[in-house]
């Protein structure tokens, strides 16, 4: 079947990497990853965590910024009008708001707590990346059809070049994952994989090695 979007010019030019890369890690927290939580236990999300750790490690070796976030609230009153009841249990200080241990061990430079889908909404994430002169953002995390998609759109809207490694993001549903990746690829981002992300980071490291 022909792609009616492609016929109209959607996705006809790549974004490409720019001058400096930053990595954002969206909601890889126990409440969305761990099988012992209502919203956790999705195999695709667990695999995305495993694939993201080497990307973080590569960025840290290169001296590039890594910003993680968790979704959480001081109280249920601080949460917006979610239609997902379990979100209201993501309270500051609870285990559900802890970073997945594998992500925590990789030691992101900054961990933010957000109250909306996007890592950029009402947080200092964009300001931190701007301070570091980042123009290209690699977006990892979960859930592809929710907070990842929102973060991609905000990164795009803020003027960043956006890269999404398909194997570093995950969803509860494979179809929703694929559809949302295809849609952001048409409009806002290049969809790559972890190996390409690491290669680009390593190329930046070699080009900027001052030793």
Show unreliable segments: none
Shape: globular
For the termini, the CA-CA separation is 53 Å
So, CATH architecture?
Answer: 3-Layer(aba) Sandwich
Q: What is the CA-atom radius of gyration, in angstroms? A: 17 Å
The overall number of domains is: 1
| Sheet with most strands | 7 strands, parallel
Q: Using the coordinates above, name the CATH class.
A: Alpha Beta
Task: Assign a percent range to the helix content.
Answer: 25-40%
Q: Output the CATH homologous superfamily.
A: Isochorismatase-like
Beta strands, count: 7
CATH topology: Rossmann fold
Instruction: Please state the structural category.
Output: alpha/beta
Report mean pLDDT, rounded to a whole number: 97
Characterization of this structure:
The protein is α/β, with parallel strands linked by helices. The chain has one domain: Isochorismatase-like (Rossmann fold), CATH 3.40.50. 39% of the residues lie in helices and 16% in strands. Strands 1, 2, 3, 4, 5, 6 and 7 form a seven-stranded parallel β-sheet that branches. The longest helix has 20 residues. The radius of gyration is 17 Å and the shape is globular. The mean pLDDT is 97.
């Amino acid at each position: 079947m022909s792609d009616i979007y492609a016929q109209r010019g959607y996705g006809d030019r790549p974004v490409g990497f720019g001058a400096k890369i930053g990595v954002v890690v969206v909601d890889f927290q126990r409440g969305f990853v761990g099988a012992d939580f209502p919203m956790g236990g999705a195999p695709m999300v667990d695999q995305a965590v495993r694939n993201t750790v080497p990307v973080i490690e590569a960025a840290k070796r290169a001296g590039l910024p890594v910003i993680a976030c968790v979704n959480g609230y001081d109280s249920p009153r601080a949460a917006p009008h979610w239609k997902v009841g379990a979100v209201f249990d993501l309270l500051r200080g609870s285990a559900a708001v802890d970073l997945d241990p594998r992500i925590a061990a990789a030691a992101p430079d900054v961990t933010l707590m957000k109250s909306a889908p996007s890592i950029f909404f009402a947080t200092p994430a964009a300001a931190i990346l701007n301070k570091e002169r980042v123009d290209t953002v690699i977006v990892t995390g979960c859930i592809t059809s929710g907070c990842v998609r929102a973060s991609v759109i905000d990164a795009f809207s803020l003027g960043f070049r956006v890269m999404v490694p398909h194997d570093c993001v995950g969803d509860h549903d494979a179809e929703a994952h694929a559809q949302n990746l295809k849609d952001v690829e048409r409009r806002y981002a290049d969809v790559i994989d972890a190996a390409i992300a690491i290669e680009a980071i390593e190329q930046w490291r070699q080009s900027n090695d001052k030793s």
